[in-house]
Write a structure and sequence with these properties.
Its cofactor is Zn(2+); Mg(2+). With about 350 residues, the protein is an alpha+beta fold. It is built from nine helices and 15 strands. It folds into two domains: about 170 residues, no CATH class; about 130 residues, Nucleoside Triphosphate Pyrophosphohydrolase. β1 and β2 form a beta hairpin. The mean pLDDT is about 90. The protein binds zinc ion (ZN).
């Protein structure tokens, strides 16, 4: 028996935020295998390899299941295909470049791939078998955005879908090398790109750039929560404070700077709550709870046009009377608000 104190889930969050929708699953990323030549072809030939389908921010779910998104308690699984089904359509695409698949890792000794239909169809002729496959998949499955699907999925499948979407969005947006402008191709089983700008042997490898963003539940000395309104949001929508980390800045500075800029509050002590990827297109949301040293809110008027302190009673009453809407079920903001409120929302 191992000591429970020493056993940590690789996805462990802090006590205050024990669960976040996009931080799930038990998949072994198996990073050591990614650089093996011919890995994707071998996995496609291997019996038992599972395949999920991705198109940018969207994943395929069985026909008819897409309508369940947003319904409380509804469970939705991913559409999965046996790898053998792809051998025919992918036959012409192997060779010099890797097939348009990402190796997501293994779970219970089963290997998982994501077939990226956007990547598969890019630059292909209308008659190409991969285009036919993509067209069939569009008709045969429902397609849900990751943030619609995640609150309804099983943990392992949500983990697979999150990685697949993060890679698909990245490959879809970065088709030229940001260093030299030459075309790029996926490599390392989808987790990197190789720039074609130089002779082979001298080519640089590119990795996804993740953009950290801080998000903070700001409370005052009476434990009231600050909720604010962005000018671009619907009038009744409120959320916690958030912003991108600037160049050369650490997370703590970003939390203090953004809060001061947006709502004029100086923060005292802050505590790390947890983090989750937000690949729309490439963020990592890093959540904090922070105590404000002052209560006189001054909104910047540019990005933020309103902000208020809420007691739990005020918050509960506003929510119950439909005067207040808060972030969606897949967002870290919703869990931060629920953690402060003391019950699920
Ligand atoms: Zn380059």
């Amino acid at each position: 028996m191992s000591d429970p104190e020493t056993v940590f889930s690789p996805l462990a969050l802090t006590g205050p935020l024990p669960f976040l929708p996009l931080v799930q699953g038990d998949v072994d990323y198996d990073t050591a295998s990614r650089q093996q030549p011919g890995l994707l072809d071998r996995l496609l030939d291997q019996e038992g390899t599972g395949v999920i389908l991705v198109r940018g921010e969207k994943v395929a779910v069985p026909r008819g299941k897409g309508a369940l998104a947003g319904r409380t308690g509804a469970s939705i699984r991913l559409a999965t295909l046996p790898a053998a089904y792809l051998r025919g359509p992918l036959a012409g695409s192997t060779g010099q470049f890797e097939p348009p698949c990402y190796y997501l890792g293994t779970a219970d000794r089963q290997a998982w791939l994501a077939l990226d239909l956007d990547l598969a169809c890019a630059g292909r002729a209308v008659q190409d078998p991969l285009r036919d496959l993509a067209q069939a998949a569009d008709q045969r499955f429902d397609w849900l955005a990751l943030r619609e699907y995640a609150p309804h999925g099983r943990p392992r499948q949500v983990g697979l879908a999150t990685c697949a979407v993060a890679l698909s969005v990245w490959h879809g947006r970065q088709v030229f090398c940001p260093r030299c402008g030459a075309p790029v191709h996926p490599c390392q089983a989808g987790w990197a790109q190789i720039c074609q700008g130089r002779a082979s042997g001298d080519r640089h490898t590119l990795f996804p750039r993740i953009e950290p963003a801080v998000i903070m539940a700001v409370v005052d000395s009476r434990d009231r929560l600050l909720l604010q309104h962005n000018r671009q949001w619907a009038p009744d929508f409120r959320s916690v404070t958030a912003g991108f980390v600037e160049a050369g800045e650490n997370l703590e500075h970003a939390v203090r700077r953004e809060t001061l800029e947006e709502v004029g509050l100086n923060l005292g002590e802050m505590r790390y709550l947890g983090s989750q990827p937000w690949p729309f297109p490439s963020s990592l949301m890093v959540a904090f709870r922070a105590r404000s040293l002052n209560t006189d809110i001054r909104v910047d008027g540019q990005e933020t046009d309103d902000a208020n302190w809420f007691t739990r009673e005020e918050f509960g009453a506003a929510l119950a009377s439909d005067r207040l809407r808060i972030p969606q079920a897949a967002s870290v903001a919703r869990y931060m608000i629920a953690q402060w409120y003391g019950s699920e929302l």
